[in-house]
Each structure stands twice: as C-alpha cells, then as structure tokens.
User: Fold Threonylcarbamoyl-AMP synthase from Candidatus Nitrotoga fabula.
Amino acid sequence: MKFNTIPDDKEIRSAAALLRSGGTVAFPTETVYGLGADASNPFAVQKIFAIKGRPSFHPLIVHVAAGSELTRWAKNIPDAAWQLAKTFWPGPLTLILERSALVPDAVTGGQNTVGLRAPDHPVAAALLHEFGGGIAAPSANRFGQLSPTTAQHVHEKLGGQVGMILDGGACRIGVESTIVSFVQETPTLLRPGGLAVEAIEEVLGQKILLVQSGVQKVRASGMLDSHYAPGIPFEACSGKELIHRARQLASMGYRVAVLNMGNEDAENLGMDGITCFCMPDSSAEYARKLYATLHGLDCGIFNWILAEAPPATQEWNAINDRMRRASCRAVAHSSETLIETCSLEKTLSR
Ligand code: TXA
Ligand code: MG
Assistant:
C-alpha cells in the first residue's frame, strides 16, 4: 500500500460510501488515527471491537463535524459543556454527556452516556462532512497497545482488517484528546490529553475534578493502568537515575534504548547495549514524537526502553500519564522483580 498521498475528493467519497455500507475506515485526526464506523449502525460498530480486540463494554467516542450536532447525540447538555464545545471544537477535547436515543448500546457499552468530539483535521472534517453522520472511532490500534500517529502505523498493526486507510500525514498533536465528563455535578477529567486542563478551567471559571484510575470504576479504557503500551518493556526514571539504570540494564544483557531529554551525560554513555535518542524538551513536540518513537523502537533491535521522566508539571501531564500506563505493570516492584516479571510476561505472550 502506498502512503503519503493526501486523499482527494474521490477517495473521501468512497470512504464515506464505505461507512454508509457498514464498513470501517481508518482516518487521521489532529491527535491520533481513529478506526471509524457509522455510529448509528450497531453492526458496523461491532466490527471495530472485533478488529481492535477490545472488550465490548468499553465505550467509543462519536466524532461529529461541529458543536451544532451535540443535540443530535446528547441530551440535557449543561451550559458548561456548550461553552467548551464552542471554545475548543474542532479540537482535542472529548465531552462525556448523557446520550440521546440515537446512540446505540454498541457505541456506549450500554452506558447512558456518550463521548463526543469534533476533530480538527482537514481529512477527518472532509470525511465527516461527506458522510453526514457521526463516526464512532477509537484509536486505530489493537486494545492496550500504542495509538498510531501515521497511516503507516495503522497499516502495520491492523492492515488487512480495515476497509480503508486514509492518509493525512503525521498527527499534529500526537497524544489522544482530553476527556471531560459532565455526568457528575462537577466537570471531571477522565483523561489528560491534547488540550491543557488549565485552558478548560479558564473557560469554565472553575476547577475540574481529577479522577485517579483505579479509584473509580474504569469508564475510559485509557484509564486502565496498563495501556498505551509498546511491545517491549518501557520504564521511566528520573534524569539523575538514568545513567545508572541504563548501565544496570545493559550489564544484565538488555539492549536498551534510552530516551533522554538534555541529559548530556547519557549521550556520551558509549556502552555496548545502550543507544540514546534525544527527545525534545518542549511538551508539545515531545507529544508529537512520543508514539512514533515508541513504534520505531519496537523493531527487534531493542528489548528495553528507558525514558528520562519529564518534569512533573501540568504541562507534561498527558505525557507523564501515557508513560505511567506504558510502563510495565510490575513497575511498583523492585528493579529485579520488574525485570523478572517483564521477561516472564514476554515469554508468556510469545
Ligand atoms: O484523540 C482521541 O480521543 C482519539 C481520536 C481517534 O479521536 N480517540 C481515542 O479513542 O483515543 P479511544 O477509544 O482509544 O479512547 C477514548 C476513551 C476510551 O478510554 C473510552 O473508554 C472513553 O474515551 N470513553 C468513550 N465514551 C465514554 C463514555 N461514555 N464514558 C466514559 N468514557 C468514555
Ligand atoms: Mg485508544
């Protein structure tokens, strides 16, 4: 399959026709690539779950062309939600609202709420316009794995299973949308993402609640502790510990890819088994590069990814969140246990 050709009108028309006939289309958004199907067709929506290997109770986001479609898919919409849609759509913000009768159970996993978002990408916008309905779409990856930020990623991981893949180039933002729920009295953050929480709070004139995964019943699959994970163990540690940890891993026989952020000592490590990759020090650029870098490192050369943890500030919230979830489940254990557990998991999953 050839990529890097931006779809023309003809391709958009055939993608919309495919959606109308109940097929699946992978398409670019400003955050990550989505795997889309007609949101009003439960049979089409089922295909997404089958392709992703995603449990059917995990709800999907319905993508819409504009805020004017909110009333079609949701009801009892609070003013605050309208305000956010008006300010940030199209953009990397998903609103969780009470669903309208149009939303099938297949989309919401039987919940009474629906996730809605208007993506800010010309190809997604053209597709939504041509299709005329809502497109249910999770990220176009297998359940629990890394989200794709290029059409090539989608092709490599889901290739033959998807009806059509539209190429819109590399995603501008690179991490998924911020999810805010309006189901509770106070707006609640379910997932940090491409839109900063401070920007949302500024518009609302109030703080939003932050929900820790594991504290509440998992509503957003991205809130599962192990998620957004590359195929090889991933670990983040402080800049101070980076070199020591890299050496420790290399001496145990691991081929370590080190993602450093301006830790110059790391670049001069020059030790067998350690390769350094310099990551940007701006959070926006880091986000844009993160998944593409992790996809690239999962190529058979390395068997451990060690990242220098970014600062624990709001600005890096979404990236720190994804790193925590990408980390091996055993991260709370001691280093030795971590290695054993991860190796065991790898062995078991072969
Ligand atoms: O940036 C994004 O949001 C991308 C692009 C393709 O739009 N989509 C995406 O979809 O990340 P997905 O399914 O990989 O993650 C969406 C998250 C899931 O964790 C899902 O559980 C949550 O949104 N979600 C969807 N509907 C929900 C609902 N009604 N209540 C709570 N969480 C919901
Ligand atoms: Mg996803």
Observations:
- The chain is about 35% helix and 15% strand.
- Residues 247 and 274 are 8 Å apart (CA to CA).
- The first strand starts at residue 25 and ends at 27.
